Amino acid sequence: MQEEAPPGARLVLEPGGELTFGRIRARLGSDGSLEACDDYGCIKARVPHGSSVFMDPVPPLNRPSRISNCLYIEFEEQLIVPGGRSSFWTTAPYEFMVHVNGIVLGYLSPLRVKYTLIGDIVDGVVCRYHRAIVTSSHRELTAGGGLGLVSVRFRGSPGKVPGIGFYAAGAPLFTNGSFVYYPEIEAEVDQLRLSVRATQRPPLSGLREARRARLRAGGLLPQVFVVTLEGA
What we know:
The protein is mostly beta strands. It contains no helices and 21 strands.
């Protein structure tokens, strides 16, 4: 039986079942044969008889291959922050970690994947890219289908902000059972300098943590993403 998966959070594939989520198509035979595909390839495995396959949302850093630890969200309109403290909402993609019996089988993306270079070709950083609107309320945004909700809390100087980048590797994602939320993002504007970091805190009360992404890169990852803003 094939079914359209719910808007977000954990997906479960039972023996003999099929599911569709965005650009993901997955089938688990009653004999344990698994085939789960996105635009960039397929996961094929023979899982223990009677076992279910789980797909949990994680930061979108693994498809089509792991080349970056950061995520950059370009706003459709430049955001003018007034100075002091202010909060805004936007969206960001996520992908799924596929696992069975505690064993990670791979990752799948429900959306097409894009990357961008932030900065110049010598000292710049390559990040997973997403373009989105920014609003004052999450109720004005359309999430689901591979898009999670992001709360950004600004402080500091007034500024013109074209987008935000942050290091997402290891960041916990949260859910209310239907939609996926990123941890609260803190952004500080200091004249023409924007510093952004992902916290470990849920942006709203009542959310529970989805399974935490597993780090592949060794060593410590930088936590603060810094860019230079254009002048007025």
